[in-house]
From TrEMBL:
GO molecular function: metal ion binding
Pfam families the record matches: zf-Tim10_DDP (PF02953)
Metal-binding among keywords: yes
SUPFAM superfamilies: Tim10-like
Domain notes per entry: The twin CX3C motif contains 4 conserved Cys residues that form 2 disulfide bonds in the mitochondrial intermembrane space.
The encoding gene: TIM10
Record flagged with keyword DNA-binding: no
Keywords: Chaperone, Disulfide bond, Membrane, Metal-binding, Mitochondrion, Mitochondrion inner membrane, Protein transport, Translocation, Transport, Zinc
Organism: Staphylotrichum longicolle
UniProt name for this protein: Mitochondrial import inner membrane translocase subunit
Topological category with respect to the lipid bilayer: Peripheral membrane protein
Record domain Tim10-like: where: 14-76
Chief location: mitochondrion
Family, per entry: Belongs to the small Tim family.
Length: 86
């Protein structure tokens, strides 16, 4: 990206597309990890049990919180090194 000029429309679109890709990948990883951790693989019931629902809710919350913390730290380190940013 250019150092002094504002980003072009194509650059803005690419940035949004990249963010969507990152969020989709995070969601897929979260679903895989939390499902393996929280859902009984014997599938005895058609619906989630209360315990499974609570576990999934907590797992997703912790996963997202960790993702946010890591993203913020990476942005700070990138800014400190002089890489673009917001």
């Amino acid at each position: 990206m250019r150092a002094s000029a504002s980003p072009t429309s194509a650059e803005k679109i690419a940035a949004v597309e990249n963010e969507i890709k990152v969020m989709a990948e995070m969601h897929a990883r979260m679903m895989k990890v939390c499902s393996a951790k929280c859902i009984d693989q014997s599938y005895r019931e058609g619906e989630l049990t209360k315990g499974e629902s609570v576990c999934l809710d907590r797992c997703a919350s912790k996963f997202f919180e960790a993702h946010q913390t890591i993203s913020e730290q990476l942005q700070k380190e990138g800014a400190a090194r002089g890489f673009g940013g917001n």
